[in-house]
Amino acid sequence: MRLGLPPLAIRTRLTLWYTSVLFAILVVISVLSYSALAWSLRQDLDASLLTVARVVRDTGPAGAGPDLASEALRELLGPDFYDKFVQLFDPQGNLGFRSMPRALGTLPRRVAQLIQAGLPLERMDHTLWRYAQTLLVLVPLGLLLAAAGGFAIARVALRPVDEMTRTARRITAEDLSQRIPVRGTADELDRLAETLNGMLVRLESTVVQLRRFTADAAHELRTPLTVLKGGIEVALRAERSGDEYRSVLASSLEEVERVSRLAEDLLLLSRLTAGVEGERTRVDLEPIVLEVFDLGSRLARETGVSLRLAGAEPAAVIGQPRSLWRALMNLVDNAVKYTPAGGKVELTLTRRDGRAELSVQDTGPGIDPAQLERIFQPFVRLDDARARVQGGAGLGLAIARSIVVAHDGVLDVESTPGAGSRFIIRLPLAPEPT
């Protein structure tokens, strides 16, 4: 069960993470430094006691009385002797000299000479305790200061994000021209701003295309509907003969069929744009090319154009047969429509560089190089008057490219004004069956 607590801000989470990591580091450093200090103090004490023992050994106060021996050691060792005590034993283990009235321990027999030196550990323990107290004060204080500094740094570092947020809130579908400012630091935030600006550019382009597409679609639908409405209104103004009514109905039927084709093309283009596809299978392109050639030949004869099959190599791809047929048929139909009577259209299927190439070449008027990419946009017709007479809505090439792209292919065009055009579909070949 989750509590209804608001999520923490990024700067707060960064501060908490930073403080937690710093706390762990300080704890580890404190433990290590405390251990190192304790070890160092013990080493110093051991070295000091060893020095005292060597002085006692070298000066040899064993034969002197206790008072004289103590006085001699004080003169030799100076202040280092005051907190230390020494015992000196002869080879039989008998006590020869003691600097303080207490023993350091029992001794084994049969030794050549033994010197015992010692000192109290209270000063070392007191030093370690003071150091531990200092750590207990400085570590929490350091954490507080680090947390405050980390929060301030995070706030400053994330200030550009707040500016991006405010700018993004001002951007709406009605005004996509605004861009997120780039500071020029080339850091991660600048890359984020550039990425968002790139997304806004694509989004603005998409919205503009969508608006243009909607306006063009409405215009294309309005024309046949206006013709249909006008014919029906004229027929209803007065009594007409049966032949006149049949003529009106026949004209209305043509407009209805035109609207129906347009609606089907719009639906297909919408599905292709959204990536809606059916099941893909292995498709042999040669039968599709032959079928398109047969149908295209009949269309070409009606317009006085010659359609020729230049070659058809066996080639297979992965895709949908009906969609690929539609893409190729659109190219052939477009070539036949825009090639003058007496012209030629050539259809070819070849294999090259691991791809299948479907080529449709005509001897039509060609295309201006500045218009090569524009012709693939919906409702674009370079010869608008001629296209309307032939019943075109300017969706054929857009649908063909969408189908090819959906099959992981490319649709290119090569054209020279006055010398014809060549449309090429390139599709990856299907792997050979095992």
Report on the architecture of this protein:
The protein is α+β, with helices and mostly antiparallel strands and 434 residues long. 57% of the residues lie in helices and 14% in strands. It is built from 10 helices and 10 strands. The chain has helices at 10-59, 66-77, 122-157, 159-170, 188-236, 242-274, 285-303, 321-338, 384-389, 396-406; strands spanning 85-89, 95-98, 114-118, 281-284, 306-312, 316-319, 344-352, 355-362, 410-416, 420-428. Strand 7 (344-352) and strand 8 form a beta hairpin. The model is unreliable at 61-66 and 385-389 (pLDDT under 50).
Question: Which structural traits does this protein have?
Answer:
alpha+beta; five-stranded mixed β-sheet; 10 helices; 10 strands; elongated
Distance between the termini: 55 Å
Sequence of secondary-structure elements: HHEEEHHHHEHEEHEEHHEE
Shape: elongated
Residue windows where pLDDT falls under 50 for at least 5 positions: 61-66, 385-389
**Overall pLDDT score:** 78
Beta-strand content bin: 5-15%
The number of distinct helices, counting runs of at least 4 residues, comes to 10
Secondary structure tally: strands: 10
What Rg is obtained from the alpha carbons, in whole angstroms?
Answer: 48 Å
Which class best fits the helix and strand makeup?
alpha+beta
The largest sheet has its strands arranged as 5-7-8-10-9
Q: Percent range for helical residues? A: 55-70%
